[in-house]
Amino acid sequence: MTKPVNDFSELIEYLDEKFQQVATKSYVDEKLDEKLEEKLNEKLAPLPTKSYIDEKFADLEGDLIVKLRKEDQKVNRLLELLKQKDVLTESEIQELATFQIFPKQN
After folding, report:
1. What is the residue extent of each domain of the chain?
2. Is the predicted pLDDT of residue 84 greater than 90, yes or no?
3. Which SS3 state, helix, strand or coil, does residue 45 take?
4. How crowded is residue 76: how many other Cβ atoms within 10 Å of its Cβ?
5. Distance from C-alpha of 46 to C-alpha of 50, rounded to nearest angstrom
6. Half-sphere exposure for 35 (CA within 13 Å, toward CB)
7. What is the C-alpha separation between 96 and 83, in angstroms, rounded?
8. Distance of CA 37 to the CA centre of its chain
9. Is the distance from CB of 72 to CB of 105 less than 8 angstroms?
10. Which of 48, 63, 65, 97 would give a disulfide with 52, using CB separation of 3.0 to 4.6 Å?
């Protein structure tokens, strides 16, 4: 139990003594570290992980390949129809076929 403070100078001494006990460098560093870690965790928690981002990019790449293949099939079919109707010559068909994204496998 602490003794009662009788005058202003004793109050200053008492407060100074308590402040010295509390305000040591290690105590302040410890409190700052705790607060910093707490704030950092708050900011980092909602961020996506690397594995999540990698998975989403892989999904996007797969979706893109599927769509490109469908478009490539449409262009190939159109070239076949234009060739059958003699709208394009064989050399024009071959020239347009060089722009294929996914070359035909024989």
Report:
1. 8-44, 50-97
2. yes
3. coil
4. 15
5. 13
6. 6
7. 12
8. 21
9. no
10. 48
